[in-house]
Amino acid sequence: MDLVVFVLASAMVLAGAVSVVAMRSPVHAALGLILTLFGIAVHFVALEAHFLAAVQVIVYAGAIVVLFLFVIMLLGVDNIEDLRRDPLPIQRPVALVVGLGTVTLVTVAVLRTRDTMAEGEALDASGDSNIRLLARNLFSDQVLAFELTSVLLIVAIAGTVLLTRRPPKDRS
Fold first, then answer.
1. Cβ pair 56, 39 in contact under 8 A
2. CATH 1.20.120.1200 region(s) of the chain?
3. Residue 61 phi/psi, 5° resolution?
């Protein structure tokens, strides 16, 4: 039974990921992203990580994809743009540098975590206490960073709208 769930959930994830890349319509690509996120939530349920599955569905498949759809609908992205012409020529080199930096940071974090776990400083795996520790840390010690993240998301949406706004057409 576990194998059947794994295969079906993996098929959902792969089909959704391919549709995100292959679809021409941004709305259809967002729907493919929802399929991918639900498939990942099924994997979490199969691993008995019910909290992560709920967060996956509520936060990612719900709020984040709705945010993407809101921006897509607000900007009216219905036409296909010419990808051979870069509106900002600097964006590809900057994206490359940021991508390499992100991969480097993730690699360093994984290596440091592996070293920490090898030294015996394992996390407390007593079930519900991890969630309480996370909540206490997030909403007491890190509450400023948590709130700044929400402000950052709002600023990113507003910036996206302002940068991609089309000038009004002359009616004369």
1. no
2. 1-80
3. -70, -30
Q: Which residue, chain included where needed, has tokens 């520790």? A: 133
CA angle 109, 112, 117 (to 5 degrees): 120
Instruction: Answer whether 0.85 is exceeded by the pTM.
Output: no
Which of 3.60.15.10, 3.40.50.2300, 1.10.2020.10, 1.20.120.1200 is the CATH number of 1-80? 1.20.120.1200
- For the chain, 172 residues long, give each residue's pLDDT as a single digit of tens: 888 999 999 999 999 999 999 988 888 888 899 999 999 999 999 988 888 888 888 888 888 888 888 777 777 665 555 666 766 778 788 889 988 988 888 788 777 766 655 555 455 555 567 777 777 777 777 777 777 777 777 777 777 777 666 666 665 5
